[in-house]
Amino acid sequence: MVKRELYIDKIRPLIDKDIIKVITGIRRCGKSYFLNLIVEELKNNGIKDENIILINLESMKYNSLKTKEELDDVVLNLTKNISGRFYLLFDEIQNIERWEKAITGYKVDFNCDIYITGSNSKLLSGELATFLAGRYMEIKMYPFSFNEFLSYKGGNNEMELFQEYFKYGGMPFTLELNSQQKIDYLNDIYNSIVLKDIVEKYKLRDVNLLNRLILYILDNIGNPFSVTGISKYLKHFNIGFSNNTLYNYLQYLENALIISKLPREDIQGKKLFKLSEKYYVTDHGFAAALLGERQQNIGGILENIVYIEFLRHGYDVSVGRIKNYEIDFICRKNKRKVYVQVCFQLNSPETQEREFRPLKLIDDNFEKIVISMDDFDFSCDGIKHLNMIKFLKEFI
């Protein structure tokens, strides 16, 4: 059992506060389990079982519910004999049409505390955001961190465990499976997301283009994305597309929380660029599952792990540029700013120069770090060098 303390610590101060708690994250990252942890927390606070109502909208019991009116009937029936304050927890709320009106209605009419989960990044872009501006709190959930992975696995061989984490990612249920089962399960998750959250939702016809697009992104993690590059790639498969279709499909993948886009930022000019963004995947295990035996981009996967780790801890992240050099990540949280370079190994003077030089050009006093798999400490000129495992365990 992994208690997911990072998220419990975020939710605990919000219990019984007059805001709706919204937990978002990719399918199968642990949101349902987290709702059960919240139920456990409520019981520990002395809340009676009958005052806690958990509705999983993907379970057999409730997956036939499709509309606000159907959900209203269930909620009214379940709460009619409850005295005092009660707690409503809804899992995968986006499965209900006009769910926003249902939730706002419960907020107005009942003495209740509400928790909802959803698997779409646009969950809060509709009426809930309009009606309840400032009255909800979003908690973004991700697959297991390496620390959570270690907590589940136990043992002292951190390098061996990191190699497993590096290849298969942190989707919670994969930890109970053997290698082939992990691959099969990750493929099943991907196919489920594509079908339920993209193809059915947006009524897509060209699923082949969508699949080829995600394969291209996985093959090019850490590289700037360009329409020219994807055009050349898709020509090999005789796939035609318009730029508008391409950008729509990218947005659908983002909405389903499979991928995440980073803007580019000019460190000296303080400008954001909309072109040549980078894309990373929410769980890097999808690379092993979907690319098969193809040689993985080790540096790109390491970047992906670092990027998601910063997001997991609430940082805003962008890609930096200074003169003609790139900074992998600029990470901001409150008053803290960290410039980050990531590579596999600093095994030559040329590689060390390539990774450290861009950071040396930055003339402010914020933290600057280089992360690699090396055990030897290459720190110099005020720039910290961290081993990847040490970073994941201790830095943030």
UniProtKB/TrEMBL annotation:
Residue span(s) of domain DUF4143: 196-343
Residue ranges of every copy of the AAA domain listed in the record: 20-150
Protein name as annotated: ATPase
Naturally occurring in which organism (per UniProt): Methanobrevibacter smithii DSM 2374
